[in-house]
């Protein structure tokens, strides 16, 4: 067994374990941390596929920014105990959960089945790698030529999200004033 | 295979020891320099000129009682100091220390890992350093710690944007993400050995990097996460003994790391006069440049009062970020026109 296989197996197990821990943890902060562990393991997997750029960006964007915001929100709401997460969900919610899991499993089965019959196992994918795969240059070339429109459309989507966040977060003066008046009267 | 493993292990051990010693003596340097800035003498009794003071501090911290408050979240409380310490050390994995040499016939690269996306790696690792502070502040179960953690997360996220943008100028000119390439491009054989340093072609970028790096490492005048006048000690209020000192070492390792990155990106890394004839001189130049950065840090700390929190946020978003964007656009334009 070569070193690559050992690293792959370890990081794959860590990735799956981290993802499952994220779901099963009742402590929200621990869930976020498990998510981070899973992300780090995924970054290792990307790097093993020679997609260095993707691996680095995964950590910068998800572990560095998105998860920090999650933690930020959890700390602001100060969700410490499981009680504050609300009571266990009802049967109807459980049904929805099982339905979605069923869909996901079917998706996995479909992917594994189709790719196995076409012979695109891990080794096959590694060998089909084009020249300069995963480098910054090749990713940038694809982004700015073939996928330019989706890329630009995504940026507009993000802009809309930013504007929406600003609108929602802006303090409404009409709502703030009554409390001030109340305080004054008291 | 075995040779590579042994050679890398030796290099890793040397670098880790060097960085830890550097951290210890950075505290000595800070105490001594700040003392002289304030017309005091500073540590004097432990060894000649107080040179053994860091050792005395380390021994004291190790033997102090480790007090764990009642309301802490056990796991994260124990984890936070480690998380704040490890990323700072990891950055040194990609920084080239000197010119490649050979010892006893073995070629030795003066860098632990010559990654071709080293700059991105540094970003990724830097962005992880924030977890130590957030988790430490949150898990302590204390108001002061929580406020320190919240402030730091807001501050570091805000300044990380400008931090990233400030380096993009150099990357645009250099057309590479490898630190080794970047250092090689700044070489110059003439008597003006500093003529090819990127600081001349990216003056604004350098100033932005300097400012954001101070904010990223939570140093004065941006040391709001631990503002002792209002938050007692900030995120590490409830920590004591070795756990506290790990936060402390983490902060100094971070300072050393951003100094080393700054020296590499803007001041030619290990490049300097006579480095081609005596390769080991590269390490000396590199350490000297890092030292100058550290001196500047401490000088700043002794000079400026702390920002107020809203001033800090306004400065980050309304001044630094537009300037960084402007610098990026200007550099792209100049590169496209082939001016620089």
H-E order of chain A: HHHHHHHH
Q: Label the structural class of chain A.
A: mainly alpha
Q: In total, how many domains does the architecture of chain A comprise?
A: 3
- Low-pLDDT residue intervals, each spanning 5 or more residues of chain B: none
> Helix- and strand-based class of chain B?
mainly alpha
Uncertain spans of chain A: 180-186
Please estimate the helix content of chain A.
over 70%
Pair of chains with the largest interface and how many residues each contributes: A-B, 25 and 30 residues
Summed up, the helix count of chain B is 13
**What value does the average pLDDT of chain B take?**
83
Explain briefly what this protein structure is:
Chain A is mostly helical and 186 residues long.
Would you mind describing this structure in some detail?
The complex is a heterodimer of chains A (186) and B (340). Chain A is built from eight helices and no strands. Chain A is mainly alpha-helical. Chain B is 66% helix and 2% strand. A two-stranded antiparallel sheet of chain B has the order 1-2. Chain B is mainly α. Chain B has helices at 2-37, 53-63, 74-90, 118-128, 130-139, 143-174, 179-185, 198-201, 203-216, 228-231, 241-266, 281-303, 309-336; strands at residues 101-103, 106-108. Chain B starts with a helix and ends with a helix. In chain B, helix 1 (2-37) packs across helix 2.
Descriptors:
heterodimer, A: 186 residues, mainly alpha, Four Helix Bundle (Hemerythrin (Met), subunit A), 3 domains, 78% helix, 0% strand, B: 340 residues, two-stranded antiparallel ribbon, 66% helix, globular
Chain-wise SSE layout:
The complex is a heterodimer of chains A (186) and B (340).
Chain A: H1 3-24, H2 28-48, H3 52-77, H4 91-117, H5 122-127, H6 136-144, H7 148-169, H8 173-185
Chain B: H1 2-37, H2 53-63, H3 74-90, E1 101-103, E2 106-108, H4 118-128, H5 130-139, H6 143-174, H7 179-185, H8 198-201, H9 203-216, H10 228-231, H11 241-266, H12 281-303, H13 309-336
Antiparallel strand pairs in B: 1-2
Helix pairs in contact in B: 1-2, 1-11, 1-12, 2-11, 3-5, 3-11, 5-6, 6-9, 6-13, 9-11, 9-13, 11-12
């Amino acid at each position: 067994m070569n070193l690559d296989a050992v690293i792959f197996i370890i990081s794959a197990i860590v990735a799956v374990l981290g993802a499952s821990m994220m779901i099963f943890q009742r402590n929200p902060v621990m869930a976020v941390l498990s998510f981070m562990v899973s992300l780090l393991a995924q970054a290792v997997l990307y790097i093993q596929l020679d997609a260095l750029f993707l691996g680095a960006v995964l950590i910068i964007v998800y572990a560095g920014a998105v998860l920090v915001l999650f933690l930020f929100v959890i700390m602001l709401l100060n969700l410490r105990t499981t009680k504050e997460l609300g009571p266990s969900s009802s049967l109807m919610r459980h049904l929805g959960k099982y339905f979605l899991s069923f869909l996901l499993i079917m998706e996995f089965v479909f992917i594994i089945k189709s790719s196995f019959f076409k012979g695109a196992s891990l080794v096959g994918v590694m060998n089909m790698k084009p020249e300069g795969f995963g480098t910054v240059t090749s990713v940038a070339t694809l982004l700015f030529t073939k996928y330019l429109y989706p890329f630009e459309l995504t940026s507009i989507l993000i802009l809309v999200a930013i504007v929406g966040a600003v609108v929602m977060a802006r303090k409404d003066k009409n709502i703030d004033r009554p409390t001030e008046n109340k305080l004054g009267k008291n | 295979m075995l040779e590579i493993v042994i050679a890398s292990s030796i290099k890793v051990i040397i670098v880790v020891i060097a960085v830890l010693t550097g951290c210890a003596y950075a505290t000595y340097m800070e105490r001594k320099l700040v003392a002289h800035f304030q017309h005091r003498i500073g540590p004097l009794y432990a060894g000649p000129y107080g040179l053994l003071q860091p050792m005395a501090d380390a021994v004291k911290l190790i033997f102090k009682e480790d007090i764990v408050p009642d309301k802490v979240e056990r796991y994260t409380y124990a984890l936070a100091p480690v998380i704040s310490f490890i990323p700072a050390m990891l950055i040194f994995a990609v920084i080239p220390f000197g010119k490649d040499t050979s010892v006893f016939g073995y070629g030795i690269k003066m860098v632990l890992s010559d990654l071709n996306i080293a700059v991105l790696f540094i970003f990724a690792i830097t962005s992880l350093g924030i977890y130590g502070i957030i988790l430490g502040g949150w898990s302590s179960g204390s108001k002061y710690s929580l406020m320190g953690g919240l402030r730091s997360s807001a501050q570091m996220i805000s300044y990380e944007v400008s931090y990233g943008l400030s380096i993009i100028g150099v990357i645009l000119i250099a057309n590479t993400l490898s630190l080794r390439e970047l250092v090689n491009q700044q070489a110059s054989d003439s008597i003006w050995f500093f003529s090819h340093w990127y600081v001349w072609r990216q003056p604004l970028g350098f100033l932005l990097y300097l400012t954001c790096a101070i904010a990223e490492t939570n140093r004065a005048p941006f040391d709001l996460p631990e503002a002792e006048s209002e938050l007692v000690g900030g995120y590490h209020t409830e920590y004591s003994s070795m756990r506290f000192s790990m936060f402390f070492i983490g902060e100094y390792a971070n300072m050393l790391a951003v100094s080393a990155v700054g020296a590499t990106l803007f001041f030619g890394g290990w490049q300097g006069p006579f480095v081609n004839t005596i390769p080991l001189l590269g390490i000396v130049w590199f350490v000297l440049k890092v030292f100058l950065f550290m001196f500047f840090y401490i000088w700043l700390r002794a000079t400026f009062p702390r920002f107020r929190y809203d001033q800090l946020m306004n400065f980050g978003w309304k001044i630094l970020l537009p300037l960084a964007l402007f610098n990026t656009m200007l550099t792209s334009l100049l590169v496209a026109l082939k001016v620089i």
